Amino acid sequence: MKSTDKAAIELNHVSYSDEDLDIIKDISGFLSEGKITTFVGPSGAGKTTIFRLLNGLISPTKGDIYLFGKNIQTMEPTALRRTVGIALQDATMLRGSVYKNLAMPKTLQNQELEKEEAAHLLTQVGLDASFLHRDVTDLSGGQRQKVSIARTLVNRPKVLLLDEITSSLDRVSTSDIEQLIQHINQKFSVTIAWITHNLEQALHIGDDTWVMMNGELVEAGRKDLLKNPADSRVQEFVKGEWQ
Prior knowledge:
Elements: E1 7-18, E2 21-32, E3 36-40, H1 47-54, E4 62-67, E5 70-71, H2 77-83, E6 84-88, H3 98-108, H4 115-124, H5 141-153, E7 159-163, H6 171-188, E8 191-195, H7 199-205, E9 208-213, E10 216-222, H8 232-238
């Protein structure tokens, strides 16, 4: 990220504690609008907690988070979650058809998703319109993840949070999802934050990267910092020596 980049999301001295446990510790930084920012770091670093803060599922103990210049604490929760979509590793599905799952965001708003729009969303994620009537139990892992992403796109989010969405997929499905996310980013200028444990993936698909450890933002910048990190802890992490 560069100082000239426009911020889609900005964190200003954000901390989060659960009872006596400090999970996020005084983080300041921003996600560049229209870019893909990867979040890397060891397990327990606080990456998923950051996403829950960005999506408004939890609130900071201290500090402020701004979405396109507006403090998210002042935003109506459903409006925030329409703007900041999230897709998770397990791609949780409702029982029933693909259409029922795609329609869920509209159903929660007491609205109806037109079949034509649902079919268009499927084509956007590389699935044929015939998938609309399939039962989700008949889908492969990669197909389920594509449906999950399509469902997130129903609200036309400006920011998309992806939490380890390819970690349980095979190589071919992973490559499909990576290409899909890059397509969504480029075609719709969606700002994307992606948690990944795979450093090669972070270098391949990201523009910028955040390296988190023990609830702290240790390094942030263009993705190439992973090739030559300045911080000794990050050097150990990228070499697989972090304890």
